Amino acid sequence: MDKKILIYIGIFIGALTFIYGCRDKEPYIYKLDRLTDSGVNPSDSKPYIKEIYIIANPPKNEGELVDLINNFSDSIMKSDLLSGAYISHKLTFYKETNELNYSFREKNPNKSGYFDKVDISGYYRLKLYQKSWSISEKIVGYSSSYLDGIVGKSEHFKFDADELVLTDKHNN
């Protein structure tokens, strides 16, 4: 009798573990700090920032994913506006995998094998979205999709800085 109880308890714990593991996890966006690039653009003397973001557990619905990325990038754009600096900013979003994750480091191509992916460009198939903007008197920018259903779709935007800071009506 005791053996049957232990078996049932084991099956119950296994079922709970399986159900918990199959739940949809919340999406999480994090920056690969090691790949952030910043400086001054020599053509217009405007500071620029290029950042790489990884999305863990991205929504399966492309509309929800685009909304997640736009809300995230809009918060960064608002921060840029509030800083008062004229700046160019580029965000590139990738899907998290076992290879491309928080601990990702680019490799030395001279010490890597012929088929090794040595830098972020080798993960182009995992690129989800890119959004860029430039802030001066107006905000001008674009977004480009790399999602399966809307590959190559680009949208350009231009609006007054006050429009983004004072309202949340900005949708791309």
Shape: elongated
Taking the alpha carbons of the first and last residues, their distance comes to 64 Å
- What's the total helix number? 3
Low-pLDDT ranges: 166-172
Average of pLDDT: 79
SS-based class: alpha+beta
Tell me the series of helices and strands, N- to C-terminal. Answer: HEEEHEEEEH
Largest beta-sheet characterization = 7 strands, mixed
- Rg (C-alpha, Å): 21 Å
Structure in words:
The relative contact order is 0.14. By secondary structure, this protein is of the alpha+beta class. The protein has one domain (26-166). It is built from three helices and seven strands; from the N terminus they run αβββαββββα. Mean pLDDT is 79; it is low at 166-172.
Keywords:
elongated; alpha+beta; 3 helices; seven-stranded mixed β-sheet; 172 residues; 30% strand
Short description:
With 172 residues, this protein is an alpha+beta fold. The chain is 28% helix and 30% strand. It has one domain.
Topology (elements, then pairings):
Elements: H1 2-22, E1 28-31, E2 37-40, E3 47-56, H2 62-83, E4 87-95, E5 127-135, E6 138-145, E7 154-160, H3 161-166
Parallel strand pairs: 3-4
Antiparallel strand pairs: 1-3, 2-3, 4-5, 5-6, 6-7
